[in-house]
Amino acid sequence: MSTTVIILAAGKGTRMRSQLPKVLQPLAGRPLLGHVIDTAQKIKADNIITIYGHGGDRVQAAFSDQKITWVEQAEQLGTGHAVKVTLPVLPKDGISLILSGDVPCISQTTLQNLLATTQDKGIGLVTLTLSDATGYGRIVREHGQIQAIVEHKDASDEQRQIKEINTGIYAVSNAKLHEWLPKLSNNNAQGEYYLTDIVAMALADGMTVASVEPEQAFEVEGVNDRVQLATLERQYQADQAKKLMQQGVHIIDPSRFDLRGTLKVGQDVRIDINVIIEGNCEFGDDVEIGAGCVIKNTTIAAGTKVQPYSIFDNAVIGENTQIGPFARLRPGAKLAAEVHIGNFVEVKNSSIGLGSKANHFTYLGDAEVGAGSNIGAGTITCNYDGANKFKTIIGDNAFIGSNSSLVAPVQIGNGATVGAGSTITRDVAENSLAVERSKQFVKENYPRPQKIKK
Ligand code: UD1
Ligand code: CA
């Protein structure tokens, strides 16, 4: 049976007080709607239909790389109307999961459970029991069977005592959606076309309505304002941290952990507080990340220790390296095993060979450094002439004295030495010494200037 995912995303999101459409607000660095689309893809939906209204161009542009059928709901006349506008593109058979673009954390497991219990019943809901159900549609049951969903505004005092709520997530047969939706009316307290009225239609057709609870309560939480967004962010992060800890990661304080993307881990990885991990990262066994690091799209091999406040972006780091504190690896930084990169060292589009060290205040850009070389404090590869970029190539076992400028294109041979303070503009041959600085001037018994007396 084919599965369609219908995502409601036409709401304005007024309470966000933002220029950005609500479903583009980020949770864990990804738009709310992106989370729902990812989950739809995980359950291998055959097609994804998204209903847009406000800020449609921006919403569509944000997902232009995805195969999505976009349907406009120009006027928001209610959830039933929203699904109704998909009918021209909705398959005639199969089943649809109806989700909300602002309920980002719904899990694959909950949706699979919903599909499994709905099966040939033709309609199923995700419901949840809350201590305070105010505002939600209530699930009315008789002898355990679902009889209706009553919106809070339409509910009697007695119905308002019901704690079981409609989460707004449904599985419904497409044939039935085609049959029922054109028959919806807006004769209710809000003058809206309620999707929830399909429950009564199902009962009238002699069907029973299936239901499941979400695996975790936060999965069905919606986002209407920034307070809810921040609350959900922490719940989502706590859940990710828990999963990583279950895989053997030592997260020192899960309440100060942020993963905005994916992280693959080996064993005994340790992550100190306030670390932000973005994009797709991978940490090998025994990797340690110090406090305050920001690490994006980076692979770190086993045994590497990263000291606090280091920033990596699109870097590849070998085994048993030592990095930081305050190190910066920019795109294209490739460190071999046992490299040391110390404080205030910036590496961009450069490879550093086995065991080489740049421990203090250095810029290595567009450079190739061999194995066993020492890059002295304050070394700069001058890779840019104001118009073009050039390479600096440093061999194995080279020694670059402190505060040297290497003006690219330039090559420093294996075993070569550059004297401290040199500005090197010509290649330095293997095993030779290059020093470029004026001879030291000495004036003995030098009289320092004295303060002029007034
Ligand atoms: C709806 C349910 C309610 C349930 C609640 C869960 C109905 C009538 N009620 O309430 O039983 O407890 O969700 O949160 O369905 N949307 C559109 N177009 C519209 C109206 C809404 O795309 O014309 C979208 C919204 O952007 C949102 C979703 O549908 O993503 C739900 O709309 P919302 O107004 O939040 O739902 P409620 O009416 O509060
Ligand atoms: Ca509403």
Automatic annotation (TrEMBL):
<feature type="binding site">
    <location>
        <begin position="100"/>
        <end position="102"/>
    </location>
    <ligand>
        <name>UDP-N-acetyl-alpha-D-glucosamine</name>
    </ligand>
</feature>
<dbReference type="InterPro" id="IPR029044">
    <property type="entry name" value="Nucleotide-diphossugar_trans"/>
</dbReference>
<feature type="region of interest" description="Pyrophosphorylase">
    <location>
        <begin position="1"/>
        <end position="226"/>
    </location>
</feature>
<feature type="region of interest" description="Linker">
    <location>
        <begin position="227"/>
        <end position="247"/>
    </location>
</feature>
<dbReference type="GO" id="GO:0016020">
    <property type="term" value="C:membrane"/>
</dbReference>
<dbReference type="InterPro" id="IPR018357">
    <property type="entry name" value="Hexapep_transf_CS"/>
</dbReference>
<keyword id="KW-0133">Cell shape</keyword>
<dbReference type="InterPro" id="IPR011004">
    <property type="entry name" value="Trimer_LpxA-like_sf"/>
</dbReference>
<comment type="pathway">
    <text>Nucleotide-sugar biosynthesis; UDP-N-acetyl-alpha-D-glucosamine biosynthesis; N-acetyl-alpha-D-glucosamine 1-phosphate from alpha-D-glucosamine 6-phosphate (route II): step 2/2.</text>
</comment>
<comment type="function">
    <text>Catalyzes the last two sequential reactions in the de novo biosynthetic pathway for UDP-N-acetylglucosamine (UDP-GlcNAc). The C-terminal domain catalyzes the transfer of acetyl group from acetyl coenzyme A to glucosamine-1-phosphate (GlcN-1-P) to produce N-acetylglucosamine-1-phosphate (GlcNAc-1-P), which is converted into UDP-GlcNAc by the transfer of uridine 5-monophosphate (from uridine 5-triphosphate), a reaction catalyzed by the N-terminal domain.</text>
</comment>
<dbReference type="GO" id="GO:0003977">
    <property type="term" value="F:UDP-N-acetylglucosamine diphosphorylase activity"/>
</dbReference>
<keyword id="KW-0573">Peptidoglycan synthesis</keyword>
<keyword id="KW-0548">Nucleotidyltransferase</keyword>
<dbReference type="GO" id="GO:0008360">
    <property type="term" value="P:regulation of cell shape"/>
</dbReference>
<feature type="binding site">
    <location>
        <position position="363"/>
    </location>
    <ligand>
        <name>UDP-N-acetyl-alpha-D-glucosamine</name>
    </ligand>
</feature>
<feature type="binding site">
    <location>
        <begin position="78"/>
        <end position="79"/>
    </location>
    <ligand>
        <name>UDP-N-acetyl-alpha-D-glucosamine</name>
    </ligand>
</feature>
<dbReference type="GO" id="GO:0005737">
    <property type="term" value="C:cytoplasm"/>
</dbReference>
<dbReference type="Pfam" id="PF25087">
    <property type="entry name" value="GMPPB_C"/>
</dbReference>
<dbReference type="InterPro" id="IPR001451">
    <property type="entry name" value="Hexapep"/>
</dbReference>
<feature type="active site" description="Proton acceptor">
    <location>
        <position position="360"/>
    </location>
</feature>
<feature type="binding site">
    <location>
        <position position="420"/>
    </location>
    <ligand>
        <name>acetyl-CoA</name>
    </ligand>
</feature>
<feature type="binding site">
    <location>
        <position position="151"/>
    </location>
    <ligand>
        <name>UDP-N-acetyl-alpha-D-glucosamine</name>
    </ligand>
</feature>
<feature type="binding site">
    <location>
        <begin position="8"/>
        <end position="11"/>
    </location>
    <ligand>
        <name>UDP-N-acetyl-alpha-D-glucosamine</name>
    </ligand>
</feature>
<feature type="binding site">
    <location>
        <position position="137"/>
    </location>
    <ligand>
        <name>UDP-N-acetyl-alpha-D-glucosamine</name>
    </ligand>
</feature>
<keyword id="KW-0511">Multifunctional enzyme</keyword>
<feature type="domain" description="Mannose-1-phosphate guanyltransferase C-terminal">
    <location>
        <begin position="262"/>
        <end position="352"/>
    </location>
</feature>
<feature type="binding site">
    <location>
        <position position="402"/>
    </location>
    <ligand>
        <name>acetyl-CoA</name>
    </ligand>
</feature>
<dbReference type="InterPro" id="IPR050065">
    <property type="entry name" value="GlmU-like"/>
</dbReference>
<dbReference type="Pfam" id="PF00132">
    <property type="entry name" value="Hexapep"/>
</dbReference>
<comment type="similarity">
    <text>In the C-terminal section; belongs to the transferase hexapeptide repeat family.</text>
</comment>
<feature type="binding site">
    <location>
        <position position="224"/>
    </location>
    <ligand>
        <name>Mg(2+)</name>
    </ligand>
</feature>
<dbReference type="GO" id="GO:0000902">
    <property type="term" value="P:cell morphogenesis"/>
</dbReference>
<keyword id="KW-0961">Cell wall biogenesis/degradation</keyword>
<keyword id="KW-0012">Acyltransferase</keyword>
<dbReference type="GO" id="GO:0009252">
    <property type="term" value="P:peptidoglycan biosynthetic process"/>
</dbReference>
<comment type="similarity">
    <text>In the N-terminal section; belongs to the N-acetylglucosamine-1-phosphate uridyltransferase family.</text>
</comment>
<dbReference type="GO" id="GO:0006048">
    <property type="term" value="P:UDP-N-acetylglucosamine biosynthetic process"/>
</dbReference>
<dbReference type="GO" id="GO:0019134">
    <property type="term" value="F:glucosamine-1-phosphate N-acetyltransferase activity"/>
</dbReference>
<dbReference type="InterPro" id="IPR005882">
    <property type="entry name" value="Bifunctional_GlmU"/>
</dbReference>
<dbReference type="GO" id="GO:0000287">
    <property type="term" value="F:magnesium ion binding"/>
</dbReference>
<feature type="binding site">
    <location>
        <position position="102"/>
    </location>
    <ligand>
        <name>Mg(2+)</name>
    </ligand>
</feature>
<feature type="binding site">
    <location>
        <position position="377"/>
    </location>
    <ligand>
        <name>acetyl-CoA</name>
    </ligand>
</feature>
